[in-house]
Structures are given as structure tokens and as C-alpha cells.
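pasting for ref. prot 1 ->
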Amino acid sequence: MPIVLPKQGASVNLASFSAIQGHRVAETAVNIERVTESVEALKTGFEAHRYICSDQISTAVYLAYHLRKPVLIEGPPGVGKTELAKTAATMLGLPLIRLQCYEGLDEAKAIYEWKYGKQLLYTQVLKETLEEVLQGARGFAESVSRLHEFGDIFFSEEFLEPRPLLKALREEDGCVLLIDEVDKSDHEFESLLLEILSDFQVSIPEIGTVKANREPPMVFLTSNNTREISDALKRRCLHLYIPFPDADLEQRIIHARVPEIPPELRRQLVTFIQELRDLDLKKVPAISETIDWARTLLLLHTETLDPDLVRDTLNVILKFQEDIENVDVEVPVLTNKAVKT
């Protein structure tokens, strides 16, 4: 929720401002308590935010919240894994902190790093005032001792640059931490995650252990199954697999995301997509492609599917030219089946 500050020149009543903020925090807490009171309440909350989910998904989120366990969400690309975390943050009124994983990701980009520029500037200032710092020191040992006192500042909170994982732990009232596409990272990075996933803390050698504030983050990890996730990471998480939806669920999703599309056209396009997923393709269309296609057909003022229209818009739902060429010959049969079913 945005904070509205007074206009320039207006007097600031800090007590009133703090009271407003406290009231907002209390409102958020009440909302979270209401939304998470049952599996059904969570499912209803997701639907109110246009995320249509199964009982399995809402149950996993319910358990994750109350057991304070991370959720590892696996499944093919485009089935709503990332969207689940984003919608949960919106629904619970919590900030979303996202870490996008990639090969070579390390602690400097994920947990913390030092503000090297600021350290360098501090070194220059210290050098220029060295005589003043050492004034009155007796002998080499005392001079070194004094320098060590100033040297410790280099690796203090003042020079620490928090990255997503550390930021999530420092959120006073909790947050949703999304570790997206963890399967794209290296096995070494998985090891960095184990401490935060089990104890909601990270160890910084120069400072010590940083624990989560009052409310630990609600953690979602997503994986497209491009590689096997380690057993150590899986043991620390609840597991949730999101498959492609059946026809009824996909129609509900399209209705929630593109409510303007006519019911009959919605039925036809979902039937076509469901048939398409049974073909041998390099990449079958996911829910995200179905939604894009629904918006495309709506934009083109389509009332019913026909082979020519389908061919002209195949690039919206198929991402490889080889797939488009293979499906092209099947378009009349698939379109006819979708229209007449």
C-alpha cells in the first residue's frame, strides 16, 4: 500500500503518521488471518484475484503458510507457477521479493555483497586523516590496534548491500519470496539456499548470522524440471506439481482472465488447445499461450474458429516453426473437431 506523504511546507505529525502506519499493518494482519483461515478461504481469495486453482494448490499454500514451510512448485513452463507466488503476495497484501535464477548465480547476487565504492572512499578518508587517527599512540602495537578498530567498520552493516534473500529476511512484517526457475541455477547455489529454507537465516562470515525478523518470508520456489533438484533442497520444502489443466479448469481460467470472450468461442479454443497438446510437438501450448490466443481472437472480432484464422494465428500458441509446419496440415481436422464437439 503506498504511503502518502504531506505536501512540502505542511507540518508533519509523526505520532499521527505512526498511528496510520500501525493501523495499516493491523489491517493487513487481519486480512491475512481471514484469507488463510481455511483451504476454501484461500481458494476463494485466489479466485477473487483471477487465479483459478485446484484444491491441491490451495491446500499446498495453506500448509505452507501455517507450517512455515517453503513450497517447491514444479511443472511445465506456462502453467502458472510464478503467477501463483505473485497472486499470493497481492492477496495477502505482502511485498513480493523476486530472485530470478540463472547459471552462475552466486551469493553476491542472491544474498549480499559489500559496497566496494563506499569502502574505497572510506579508505581514502582514513588515509588523509591517518595522522589524526594515530595521534597519541605509543609504539607500533598501539598504532596497529587503533587501525584495526577502524578497519572493522569496513565490514559492518553500513557497508553491506543486501540482495533479494537478505532483503526478504529483513522485511519487518513478512513478505513473499519468489525464487524463480531454481533449476536453472547450479548445484552450488542450491547449497546456499539450504540455511534460509530450513531456518530462515543466512550466515555472513564478517557479521554473523542474520535471522528473519518477526515474520519469516513465505517462500515459493519454481522449477521447469530442466534438471533434477537435489534431495537436500526437496526435503526442506513442500512439493507441489502443477500440470496442464483439463478442459473444464482451463475454461474457468480463460473466463477469469479474458471475461469478454463469448462462451462458445471460449469452448472452441480450449478444445482446440487440448487436442493440440496430444500431438508430438517440441513445445506444447501452455495456459499462458491459451490466454494470449483468447485475447488475440477477441482483438480480431472472431465469433467462431475457422481453418484460415487458426493458421494465421498459430504463431501465438506455437513457438517453433517446425511445430507450426507440422500442425498446419492438421488444422482443418482439429478446427472441425473443436467447432462440432
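and prot 2 ->
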Amino acid sequence: MAETQVARKTREVRIGGVTVGGANPVVVQSMCATRTIDIDQTVAQTHQLARAGAGIVRIAMDSEKEIPAIKEIRAQTKGITLSVDLQENYRIADRVAPHVDKIRYNPGHLHHIEKARTIEQKVKWLVGIARDNNLAIRIGVNCGSVAPAFLEKYPGDQLRAIVESAAYHCDLMDQFGFTRFVVSLKDSEPQKVVDANRRFAERCPDVPIHLGVTEAGLPPDGIIKTRIAFEKLLAKGIGETIRVSLTLPNDRKHEEVVVGHKIVDDVHAGRFISVPEFGKGLNIISCPSCSRVENERFVELAQQVKELTEYAARYRITIAVMGCRVNGPGETDDADLGLWCGPSTVNLKKKDKKIGFFSYDDVLGRLKVELDKLISARAAASAN
């Protein structure tokens, strides 16, 4: 049954040459998967994404060594709205700010940096930088890196922890008199994305929302996961800008943008998908890659994992394939089996327990061993 479309009007937020919220159309954005320090490739991909229709292009900053690169990238991408993803590098915001239009910080990555400063002090500093440099801010809350204070306050209720963390940071923005911000609440499970964003939209109806199903994975499953969430939310007027996160090689990265526009157009036209059996069997989640990926074989490995595990399609098992140290540790903890990819080895995990480090060539064989053990254990439990 099609969702009933309704209007929801937030305040407007200007981000470079783009405005989100209010009566403006949904803005589709994407993120470069190239190494930021590789200026030529990143400039090329920025233009690639913009040509495909990305209103905003996001670039990750992995260290302060990349500051000169972002300056040159900006010089070669005039007219394209750039967002910078700070993650664990919030301390370089003042040096990056002159070269971008928006900064994204993750509330879950503030507590372990400069511990002598409070979260309030850190956010106030970021707001000051944004104000001084005419920037917008995205408060980006992720399921795999929720601030410990909120996980402790709401034990066993990660969904509430995500929403409360986002709302707290909105309160800080209000306290500092800053309104040029958007919020994202992301998870790899579509229904959790729907629930979190619906709750947040009720809690903070004036705040524009950036929608995303994080680590949606390889097409076509990653597209289906994303559509399941986006259709329900966009049809209710929730979502002022969106990003489709697919695991794709660099030359196909623009497909995220194409898929995003397709979803928006379909929802506006009242075209919705129905996949009743989707999500009841094997679930492979994988990040969409970014400049933090430490080995380009990550995308190939994700595809190999998908092919290897086809025989387990009917089992309710989650396998996570993560490409860097930022997403790797936390966002494999909840998976039945997790592969956290490093420069030369892959850390194979079972939930939050490490099984061992394996080469990219050897890890698939060990993954199959562990998957077979898991299937046998499930079968034995069912028999009893």
C-alpha cells in the first residue's frame, strides 16, 4: 500500500549555493570515495558527482596532512557545494573551514578528544568557526558510534540514545544562537532509520533532516534497504536532503546520486516498492567507502563476501564488511560476523570478539568456516 504523502516544512538552511528545508526540493548529495590527499582523483570525482546531480559533495578529512589538499580541491571545484566530514578530526575545523561550505561532526567522536574540555565547549568552538566562516553544520549521529554518555543513560535502548543525543546537540545550537544546521540519524537497519527520524522529527519539527541508511551495502540489496526507509520517511515529509550509501568502485560512485534522484522522483509520483520477504534472511552490510578506506581491495572483498555467502541466503545472519578504523571497530560489534579491513590485513570478528587477523587472500576461507559453524549452531538450537 502506498504511503500518504504529506507536507512538512522546516526552516531553511543555506549551504553554499544550495538551500535545504522550507519549500525547497529535496537535495540529493554524495561523498567522494577517493583519498583526499590525491587531489586530481578527488577533484575528478567531485565533478563526477556534481554532473550526476549531487547538490552537495562531501569529502572526508583523515588528518591535518590533508588541509593543503582540501584548499587546492576547493580552488578546482568552484561552484560546487562542498561539505567536509571531520569525524575524529574536529580540532582541524578552523583550518578547513575557509575552504568548504559545511562541516559535519559526529557527537559520538567528541568525548575522547581533548578530555579536559566539555562537549559544550567543543560544540561552542565549532559553532564559532561556522559563524565566522559563513558555514552550515551537520550534526551526524551514527548507530555505531553513539556517545557513551547516552548509551549509559538509556541502557538497552539504542534508538532512544540516538534521538536524545541528536536533540541534546540541537539544544546546544539553540543555546549558542546558531540555526544553520541540519541533523542526521543513521543506522544500517532501515526500520531503525525510520523510527529514529520519525521520533526526531516530532521532537524537533523545525530542524532539516539529512536522511541516510548507513552502510546500506552492495546493489541491489543496498538500494532496496535505502528505498524501504526513504519511501516511508519522504512520504511523510521527513527528509530535506538525502544520501544513498552504496559500496561501489570509484568509477561508479555517481550511481548513488542517480539512485537518490530516482527514489525522490518515485515517491513524489506515488510509486513505491513492495518486497515482503526482504530482510528475513542473510543481511550483508558494508560501508560505501571514503578517503579513510585503508586498502582499495575493500570494495572487491565486499563483493567476494556476497558471492561466497549466497548459500546462506535463507539464514537470519548479519555479516558486516567495514573499510576503515573509524567505522570498523564499533560498526562490526553488532554483526554476527564482521570484517574490519586494514591496510594489509582484515580483522575477523564474531560480534565484539576478535577471531584474528587474516590477509585479504585468506580471510574468505576463514569466514566460511565461521559461517558454517554459525549455521550449524543455529540448526542445532532449532532442533532442540
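DSSP finds twelve helices and 15 strands in the chain.
Residues 283-383 form a domain with the Sulfite Reductase Hemoprotein; domain 1 fold (CATH 3.30.413.10).
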